[in-house]
Structure formats: structure tokens, C-alpha cells
Amino acid sequence: MILLIFVACQNGGKEPLPFNASPNLGQTVKEAWAATDSILITNGLFNPGITRYSWWIKTKISNPGLETELFFLVFNNPHINRLEVYVNGSESVIFTMGDRFPFHQRPYQDRDFVIPFALESGESRDVLLLTDKAGETLLLEPQLLNEGDFWQKRTRENLLVGLLVGWLLIIFLFAVFYAWELKEWSALFYALYIMSTLIWFVSHWGLGFQFLWPENVEWTGKSRPYLNLVTNIFFLGVILSFFPPKKHGKIIGIILWVFLIVQSILLFQSSFENEIKVSISSKMIFLYFTFFASILMTLLVLWYLIIQWRAKVPYAGFYLAGVLFLLFFNVILQLHQSGVDLGLPYFFFSFGSGFGLMGETTLITIAFAKRAASFKEEKEQLALEMLVQEKKVADQLIQVQEDERSRLARDLHDSIGGMLSSIYLKADKIEKMSHPTEETTQLKLLIKQSIEEARGLSHNLTPPHLDELGLEKALHNLIQSVTEQNNIKVKYYFKVKLSLTKPLELMLYRICSELLYNIIKHANAQEALVQLTSEDQTLEIILEDDGKGMDTQKKIQGIGLKNIRERVNYLKGDLHIDSNENGTTVIIHVPIKSSKE
Question: What pTM, to 2 d.p., does this model score?
Fold first, then answer.
């Protein structure tokens, strides 16, 4: 930004062209040539502010060089309604151009008003110009440049235009991104505010008339005040939606809403008006009204933001600093356009609004970025809290399940197991008191099998000595018990180097035991493999068998497999089953968080 301001304030080493100016009160061209009471302009800058008249400008151009050279008379104002050019006392106009005429009528196709003169060595010409911008602000700083200086000036200006347009486009893309991410009106208004401001600059620099609407002379004169209203409306939309007047500054917020509505009405009304047919007095009243209304609106926005900032509303400080930055440049520009001579070059006033907007949009974009980051942090925090809450609820459910399992295991062992033992003793006593028969022998066998089944169910409900032995030894004992009671050979491999919590060991034990009992009950397998290994922060469980396989595409699956899936999902792991007629392989990966996490 400092570099841009430095470049903009350079005058290219060329002094402005001195000239005389006098108001056009109905004089003829001959009278204008002969006039001697015109205002003498010595510094080459003419700024009557909002003027009621068109003006006669007289100057002299010359070629001090030794060769014929092409010179350009540049006005440094791309918006003049009508410009007539006369040379060397002639009453015949040589060029007629302006915003009231199609762009192609200009003698030199440039965004500014540029008049080419081919001057021989030592040749001089008197030039008379009729500049009509009655009812509007008029600012002229004519320069006479040779071809090299002209293109150096244009290159510098094009650099400024390109950088400012590029900057606004980048900010616009950010604003669209924020509007998409934040899903709120303030970000959308901000994107529209940036785009309308960009179009206003394109019109202000004369690029709109040159490239976008070269034949639409009615829109050319109306475009800047129209787009200015659009920009004000969107900016108020940004302020009022980003800082809704709910608690702080409610009265000022209501006034700002009134300003927004009034400007919307003016915008709607101006859409149907022909700017060319509007009287000079009406134009001047409108410009003075918008001038003072803009000052009042800016002060109200400033005070509204101060109230928000003092109330410690988040991000109000960024908006306040941005508006102050833009206000600094706008005050200078408004004073200059009102006729106050501040002694600053044309470049500053042509691009000053752009510099102010760069600072403002930078600070406001930072506010949106911080707000987006805050929303993201809040969303992540909420997701974390929900995850913690879900885990807490799941842990409570699992604990309830384990408590219920423990109760059932005690009932099986102490109550039902005790009763079965008593029944077995009674049956044995009855057998001894009478002659043994096949019925008493089968009865004792059934009771004994029931006792073993109850003991097995009890051990399955509560893993025996898991806390004391650890997962590796508890699984080893489970596999040994299974192989002793069933006709199956089970290979066991355990190599886990990660530190496992007791609840996690219990969950892993449940998964492995459920898979192992599924193999026993349904696979008709002769051999099986149980393998637990770890790598990095992941635990891998593999169970294989050579049984008859299972239908993995079956939608309705058994309770055992459903329980296994639920436990794996609870552990944030993944389950993969590969099965065919030669057997089944189950692979489970479970992420294990370190103690620091």
C-alpha cells in the first residue's frame, strides 16, 4: 500500500499545463477567444467544485524540441459531459467528445480525454476548450505530454488499476468463501459490497465507458452515483447484519436502517430516470444532498461502531479501524471535490478511494477470517463435547452391561450352580440307596453337564481374573478351555506392545471370545487362529478358521456378529470379514490413543 501511494503521488516529472478559465455565460466562441477577464490559473489545477456553469479553458501548447513530435493533451478527468476543442482563434470546432457522445467519437481511444497534436519544432498553438459539466463536480489538471511521457504515465496508472482491481477480486473471492462457509447475510452483503465497489471504480476510472458500455451515453453519466448508492446500501447491510442492533446502539441502528431504506428508494427511482434530461439545479441539489447525507451516514456508522467496540462486541474494533482508514481518504476527497485546494496531485484523488478501500477491506476481511476461525473452533469444541458426552453415555451403558453380566454370573455360579450341585448329590444318594439303573446314570450325567455349562456361562459372562492376569493370559486361558472342551485346535499369537487400559482389555476380550465362540458354534472348523499384534498406534486382531464359511452379504446377521460390530464401532475401529467355503478370516483394526492424548 505504501508503494502504491508513493507511485500514485508521483507526477512523472511533468508540470501541469498553465491555463486560463472563465465561466460560460452564453459567450460565443469569438467572444471567448477575445475575453481578457478570465481567471488566471497558474498551477494548472482547476477545481470549482460543484459548478453551475460550463467553462471556457484557454491554454497554449508548444514543441520546444528540434524535431516534429506527437504530443497529447491529457485532461486527467475521464468524465466530462461535453468537450469542444478550438485551435488558433478558429470558431470551427475540430473535436467534439464527452460522456454524452459514443466512445468511438473520441480522437484518441483512451479511458481519459486525450487530444493528440502533431507539433513541428518550435511550433505553438493556442487551444480553447469548452468543458461542460454543469451541475456536477469539475476537476481538471491538464498536462501536455510527449508520446514517451504519455505511455510512461499510462503504464504507471495501469499498474495502479491492475493492482487495485486484483486486490478487490481477491477480497471478493474471500468474501464469497466466507458467505458459503458462514452461511450468514453479513458475508453475502460483504461480497456484494466489494463487487459493487469494484464496478464503481471501473466506472470512475473511465474503463466502463471504454470497454463495457461504449454506446450507452445515458448510463455513463448515471453509473457513478447509481453505483455509489448500491455500494452504500450493501455496506450498511454488512454493518447491520454483522452487528445487529439488539443490545447496543439500538436507536442509531434504527436510523441506519432508515438510511438504507431511503437510499434503496432513491436507487429504485433513479433506475427509471434519464440523467441527460435532469435539470442542472436538480443535479446540484442531489449532489449536495448526497454529500451531506454521506457525511452524516459515515458519522453515524462511526459512532455505531464505537458503541459496539466500547461494549466489547467481538470484531467491532476491526470494522472501526477499517472505517476510520477509509474515512481519512474520503474526507480528503470530499473536501477536494467541494472546491478546497489541498495541493495534492491528481493521481491521489483518482486512486485515493482505492487506497482507502484497500485498508478498509483488509481489516474487515481479517474480522471475517477471525469470525470464521472462531466458528470453526466453536464447532470443533461442540463436536468434541458431543463426542465426550457420547462416550460417557456409552461407557455408562457398557458398565451397566458388565454389572448385569456380573450379577448373572454370580447367580449362575452361586444360585443355579449351587442348586444343580445339590440335585447331583441327591441323585447320587438315591442311586446308592437303590440299585443303579440306566436312568439314574443318565440323570447324573445330565446334571453334571448342566453344572459345567453353568460354570462356562458364568466364566464367559465375567472373564476370570482378567484384572489380575491381563489380556494376554486371560485369552490364553480362554483358548485353552475351549480346546479342552471342543474338538478344535487353536493357534494363539499375542504381540501387543501398546499400553491398554482395563476397560479396553475387557472390550477386546469380549470381541475375541465372541468371535471364538462363533467359530465353535457355527463354523464346524478343525483349526483356528487367534492373533493380536500392534503397530504404531493401531491394534490388529485376526481370527481365522477352516470351517464352512458364512454369507457376508446377508442383511440380517446374528446377535453375536452384531455385538462385535457395535463394540468395534465404539472403539472407532474397522471390521473386515472375508469368507468362503474354505473358511473365514476376520480382521479388526482398533486405534489406540497414547496416554498423552
Answer: 0.68
